[in-house]
């Protein structure tokens, strides 16, 4: 795939790079905010499963730097330096408007590169100690907003993937209950599937308002959606530090429900009418934009989870050297003709490199050799013998005719009995078009 | 992935409470019945028992009887688990069967041959079950769940105890060892690359202590297995490796009693291209099965013994082995296949006597081998006495010889430089000389091809071809032909096809000869590029040609008597040799291959140094012999074909999501044309009576996924034949037009032929964005067949379909909607006007007038209706009368909306639309709606939440009244649509990741 193909396929991917976001998912949070105003009045926010950090980046730019982020860039028909200058100037203005009282904590097992105003905790979101550490950073206060955009590696078995995503959400919810202040907001990713209703209904016991939101930057074909839980109001006596206080509550609630009275969680689409369509194919340069230029990703991952074939072990190296050695020996002992040497060395080479890709021999042979190869299993023999024969036949022509005379000559077909021809054709028609053998020699 | 802990997370504990309501609901609306006729989806559980095999496909248990071949004897659906997949079967106490899947456990009472199932109890638990087992003489059930907990249950599925391990972590795999509580040892595979060993009897502060932590992997552990007999643990992971762990004290129970447990990797194997989902230790080997569809068999010291291709490239989800060395796998393509792990290959290298050098070799029906040596001596290797016999000395064939054996492997012909021909025939343990002749022109015989076992064709200098008939001992020349001048006289193959002889040459051309005419009646150049034709086979009414350019082509004779290309298929290797019994033989680089054409897997592979050598293959019954010359030796490889030939218990289908299905109905047969993410277009026959489903044709021409299929019927000039045009479109902005011919005899469908007509694909320059085609619709507009195509860049592309030599699509124009991805297009006729309806990601229905479509420009929709918040994924319509319609739409926003629309003309004479009423349902589905079906009384919707809902509707006094009548939970995930036929009852096909055929009766 080319460098630009992803840019072509996905407008938000391209726009994310243009606007300096670490990942396109930044737009999802921005669009959720557009609809639910989750950032209003927030001074303390927590981002769980933060790496690579695009949601933390949104928190940093919106809350700490106080930027007004426009999802859709203003279109200017003629891109000019004055415009750019104005923009840069306004950027500088933001710098001076830093909200020093805003505290953002990002938690992940993976490290990520720093962001202005974001305190990083490299830790496990399921540990109570992590919750305490977060509160420590808020000087004993609780958070106004907890967000989580984590997702597992999908296996391909939908219900299992959805289940694991739900586990991840509940893990995040657990820490959320420990750090969120009453009235606070919790936003997390879910996968939509057959048991979605069970999960979202659960959240209603902890939050006054629960919505399932789909930002328009999230593709239609994707099963992802987000739960936006507002106004945190845990039941009285609810202690999130305890292991299983919640089970009874939920059961009681549910037993009182009639099947039909099941609470319907509203589904809300975010992103205003003018927002880009994540499913549409846009031209690389939109009307009114400066000409398209490829940009590298803003922040490549600094710690890939694990990589394959990263180290060559001594064993592998020895094995490889041994194979090479064998191959060299084989070539040395190979037969004398030039063509054969070249073919056997290429054989040995492909064996030695252990390549599993079936290389079509024809394409890697030299051109003059290709002709012989091209002409099949017998043709090289034919050519050789033709040459031999030409030399010897001149001398032995007389001899030859004598030798042949042992054989009876075939008549040309015009001398063949028409009856025989008819018989042959008939039999051929029967035998030739049937798969079973009808040899008459075994009667 | 972030670490999550196993706090008692409360979510799924009450699953069954809610489900009870759902069951109740269905009982209340009893008058709707559902019968699942068949289902094909991910197979996630397999258990081989003595006489039967249990297969879990979705939520359906399939019972196969171990007969020759396997036979489906019973099918049992699990109805009240919301379509949760089955992940395991455990028979116990003679007549009980425990089934688990997701958080559910179900116990059935069964009879001894599994043809009777009675559900005793079904229960949902608070956590996902990874492994379960019966312990203490089948009195208790233990189950390990994803949060690393062991649940102990009684046979009524009541929880006796939940035991937690000190390490709280999400597991992807677990294995329970031993079957007594006191001995139980749990192996847990974590997200964090570790294998934890703990046992319920070793606790501290009521939590189980960790006995050992095995570390070697670098990713999620997907599978764990411990074999008591061999005493090894095997693990497989996301990191593409599997590890065999050595237990120093031979048994795990003994090992865990040691002060220091010292379980270390014995070997780590890499043999998969992606994640390894399953592994199992057998007595003398261990097996790994991956997402890449490969099943590898390894020796216990880590050497690859056998590599098997299983499910068309789709993942292997589950497997089981029996003591006879059979392994049955279930995969992502919905298939279940049995393979033999036994594989005895006899591989011999034979030298000719008197240090003679072999030149050419053939294999005979008797499995004897005939060789002609460099000096012209003819040898026979007798299989019986394992030794060589010299049959004859042909000194005149010493420096040049052609050798060919008839298809039946009974007749041998030798030919020489001066036109000599010698014929031998096979006898029970040798060969016998029959006759010899010389052609009147004493020129070299370049090639000789047996046509039948009594006639052959020879090719000589100047392209002279002679057909020779062998009557008893005499040879007669029957006819002569000539290759067109200027063609290198070297034929490679010949066959009789109807009344013609077809000859293939080494430059890739086919020549068709009529008797009595010297020059070809038809020459088709470059049929197999410039690389040459390798074989011609006649089968039924078709001629099949194979080439060295990886292509198999099928021809038929047209009514003008010319060869006509029917289909062309490209295989994954270049040098094709033969096609018989649905297997293809080929050379690929240094290897000789036997490939299953139906299931597209390599059955056998042998390194022979490549195709530039003399070789032959004979198959009689199941016995296969392959001989070839290498290093001046005759190599003879023999094996039993049944040991390499897998058997499909359930035939595989699409390996990824099916995006579109179009259906034709013929009595009890449905012809389903399906296309999906795996880029294949498949033509399938489903039978409503015998509930069978067969994938008749698989066509792989698309560059990317198929998103939409449209069918248009055209008039057939021939009786007993129906012709349809199929249009398939999708990724990379490609549309392919196919012609589907259905043949009938006495009203019964007998044959299906599908041929590619035209592929519309424009190569774009690097600056442009390549779009996707989202949806198709065909309509007849003033006598023209017009194809409408919804595009992801906001255009609707119009094509006219014209019949030239083949059917072709001619681009007409674009209708531009806006920078929105358009999901749906459809046409309708109202008030004698053709109207185009489109739906896009903005949730609007747009209506366009088509009356000036061939000449006009600047088309804009004359009306739009905002229906959904976001994308409209599915719609259906029904006409109430001449100018009133109901539009049913299902959206990404989980809403089902019914729009009551009226059409009329304004005073100025413009067509106008009036929105009369609207019905909105937002709570019945809880994921995006992807399928809609409308009938005169009912409508149906299907969603990614795996539910099919049936609503009853009526319109009275301009108001829509709707009521939810019933629902059905399917185990097809990621639903993409519904196809339904109604005639009193409903025949419903639900498709997504798999397909289910449901019969529903509403009384």
TrEMBL record, chain A:
One of its GO terms (biological process) is tRNA nucleoside ribose methylation. Coiled coil: none annotated. It comes from the Eukaryota. Pfam families: FtsJ (PF01728). GO terms for molecular function: tRNA (guanosine(34)-2'-O)-methyltransferase activity. InterPro entries: RNA_methyltr_E_TRM7 (IPR028590), RNA_methyltr_RlmE (IPR050082), RNA_MeTrfase_FtsJ_dom (IPR002877), rRNA-MeTfrase_E (IPR015507), SAM-dependent_MTases_sf (IPR029063). The keyword Transferase applies. The keyword Ligase does not apply. Residues 335-361 are annotated as: Disordered. Gene3D superfamilies: Vaccinia Virus protein VP39. Residues 21-232 form the Ribosomal RNA methyltransferase FtsJ domain. The active site is at 189 (proton acceptor). It is an enzyme of class 2 (transferase). S-adenosyl-L-methionine binds at residues 53, 55, 108, 124, 149. Residues 335-355 have a biased composition (Low complexity). It catalyses: cytidine(32)/guanosine(34) in tRNA + 2 S-adenosyl-L-methionine = 2'-O-methylcytidine(32)/2'-O-methylguanosine(34) in tRNA + 2 S-adenosyl-L-homocysteine + 2 H(+). It is found in: Cytoplasm; Nucleus. Keywords: Cytoplasm, Methyltransferase, S-adenosyl-L-methionine, Transferase, tRNA processing. Its EC number is 2.1.1.205. One of its GO terms (cellular component) is cytoplasm. HAMAP family: RNA_methyltr_E (MF_01547), RNA_methyltr_E_TRM7 (MF_03162). Belongs to the class I-like SAM-binding methyltransferase superfamily. RNA methyltransferase RlmE family. TRM7 subfamily. Methylates the 2'-O-ribose of nucleotides at positions 32 and 34 of the tRNA anticodon loop of substrate tRNAs. This is Putative tRNA (cytidine(32)/guanosine(34)-2'-O)-methyltransferase. It comes from Phaedon cochleariae (Mustard beetle).
TrEMBL record, chain B:
WD repeats lie at residues 214-247. Gene3D superfamilies: YVTN repeat-like/Quinoprotein amine dehydrogenase (2.130.10.10). GO terms for biological process: tRNA methylation. It is found in: Cytoplasm. PROSITE patterns: WD_REPEATS_1, WD_REPEATS_2, WD_REPEATS_REGION. Belongs to the WD repeat WDR6 family. This is tRNA (34-2'-O)-methyltransferase regulator WDR6. It comes from Phaedon cochleariae (Mustard beetle).
